[in-house]
Fold these 2 entries.
Entry 1:
Amino acid sequence: MSPIPHLVAPSATFRTPIPDPNNPRAGDWVRAWDGHEDLSQIDLAIIGAPLSRASLSHSGAYLLPSAIRQTLLDFSTYDSERDVDLAPLRVRDIGDIALDLLDVRASHEHIRTALHALDALAPLVMTLGGDHSITKPALVARAAVAGMPIGLVQFDAHHDVRVLDGGPNNGTPIRGAIEAGAIRGEDVAQIGIHAFANSVVYADWAREAGIGIHTMPAVRRRGILPVLADALAQARQAPGGVYVTVDMDVLDRSQAPGCPASGPGGLMIWDLADALYVLGQQPDLVGIDFVEVDPQRDVANMTVKATCLAILSFCAGRLRATERGGSGAN
Ligand code: CA
């Protein structure tokens, strides 16, 4: 029996039909977990949480884990920008979390229990949504393993602090995690908040909770890395380490047409990739997720490809942080 409850095999697996050993593909480099390998010996576990029933608007975000698995075959393992080859990084695809077809709360409980088990086994877990509601059970699971509140760096166009009167949805995960005690508002930093995408009431709620808000003009004026340094400092006030959630709707709509809620004036993919490369190098990172991409609404796979680039940039940072990654330029 699997040590991870509710685990199912990926709905499909993808491999390069004619592999070239001189040009390995990222999709082949991520190996499926065999169910037996000691996960404490790997560097990164990737698991799908294909839930989109909790989305406020119609969403096919449940398709993202599978789309990522397929699209990683379009990428090599070599990061030319940073002269890092990902080959030595031990990344395993754990599979997907089986969800309840009708009940969001039951699905969240599956996600929470599966991630609680995986968080306790693997040194670092990357969760692929799904809509943004999955971040709440992910944060609750991670804080429970830490035994204390954790900090949060959130890339997002939105605050995600809506009221929970109608149950959890993709507009509530941050408020839900604060109310559950997994995170404290003063340890949350939001990067990329868009104009005309939020309300006064929820912006005030976020400010009063102590959440650090870094809007898109602040990112453009200061640059992504100084903003990220401030966000990390805030998240590090928490005793249990830093979790990162990446809502891909933080990107400009020209680069993320597959996110139903992306808008104009958003983040550029190269800024997100640079930030994730830095975050990958942080030793106190305790988890990361990518959410809110609907492959069905994507254009020319642009948003899925942007998500792959963000994931691989994070992995490059992770490898750089290990001895196997060397000590070259950042
Ligand atoms: Ca969000």
Entry 2:
Amino acid sequence: MKTLATAQQLNEALKPLRDCKKSIGFVPTMGALHQGHISLVKACRNKCDICVVSIFVNPTQFNDKSDLDKYPRMPEKDLQKLGDAKVDFVFYPEIEEMYPEEDARVFDFGELEQVMEGAHRPGHFNGVAQIVSKLFDIVLPDMAFFGEKDFQQLAIIKRMVQMLNLNVEIVPCETIREPDGLAMSSRNLLLQKSDRVHASVIRELLLKSVEMKNKASVVEVKKYIVEALNDVDNFKTEYFEIVNADTLQPLNSWTEDVPKAACVAVFAGRIRLIDNIRYS
Ligand code: AMP
């Protein structure tokens, strides 16, 4: 495994491989790696000849400065895990490499970004699109792997690829969970002990909402889940939405013939957790 810090170094390393028609897979991350990230690496290694992983805590996607400051960073452990997972290249740039000057690009994702994460984290998806498009420019991957854990982000990335007419296949990967059902997340490390114990309720309530589908109205299900989450000591729901899984627009009834999903964001103490579930 080679760890490279500049776009030029990565270009020089990848060009000969691309020239001899090796397929290049890419997994962008912000580090503090867990089995969720490693599952993306495994999918990448299955589908592509070469696996490139980036680690970059992207400041432009943090709407909350304290969230950026406290974001976990553990470079040695991360490199160890990526080496064990047989990654070929790790791109580990400094801020100046990715943002030699301010990135003033503004993306318009329309209604996709006006709900849920987009509505509650102003500028977040613009920052995501800025960094992912820059990384795609550098890596020029054939395929890029993203977790369904970040359901709306996946939709935004797919839209960005269409808008910019990029030649990269976006491969969705299922959410990897802790044994108690909590979706793995780098932020789980920041949870207070008691909040971590209670956090399995998020998955339990998403499953409960599946049980309630068609038995109670969308409004009733939303009310039940939000109240149940807020009843947990130290938890506060930011949103729980039942949406069209393609457009991410909120649904008001079960009868619409569209794929459906529920997405949730909850504060467990000061730590914000997200999760989702698809309704079949
Ligand atoms: P992050 O480091 O949080 O920016 O995540 C990097 C990538 O890993 C994104 O595509 C995430 O959706 C994905 N990811 C994060 N957590 C999980 C998980 N529990 N299961 C699967 N993929 C995940």
